[in-house]
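Lab notebook page, bench 4
Experiment: in silico fold of construct C2
Operator: M.H.
Input chain length: 151 residues
Purpose: comparison with the prior construct
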Amino acid sequence: MNDQFTRQAQDILAAAKEARIPENVKAFAEESVAKTRDAYTKINAATQDSVKAVEEIVLAAQAGAKSFGEKFLHAATVNAEAAFDAAEAMARAKTLPEVARLQADYFKQQLATASSQTKEFFELSSKISRQTLESMNSAASKTFEQLKKVG
C-alpha cells in the first residue's frame, strides 16, 4: 500500500512538471500584479503627501498656539506691572481722596486695557483658527483629488 501511494505521488509530480499555465491566465496574473503595484504606488504617494500635510497643519497650529501664549504672557506682564505701579502710587499717596482717585484711574485704565486685550485675543484666535482650517481644507481637498486618481 505504501508503494502504491509513492507511485501515485510520483505520477502526480511528473504530470505537474509537464503542466503548462495557459497564456491567458499568465497574462491576467501579470496584468493584475501591474495594476495592483500601480495602485499601491499612487496610494503610497498620496499617503506620504497626507502625512506631510498633517505635519504642516500641526506646525501651523503649534506656531499659532505659541503666538497666542506669548501674547497672553505679555498681557499678564503688562497687567501685573500696571497693578504694581498703581499699588506703589497709592502707597505714596498722602490723602484718602488721592488714594481713591489713583484707584479709580487704575480701574479705568484696566477696563480700557482689558477691552483692548480681549479684542486682540479674539482677533488672534480667529486668525489662528482661520489659518488652521484653511490648511486642513487644502490638505483634505488635495488628498481627495489624489485618491480619485487612484480609483
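Observations: Residues 79 and 120 are 15 Å apart (CA to CA). Residues 23-92 form the longest helix (70 residues).
Next step: discuss at group meeting.
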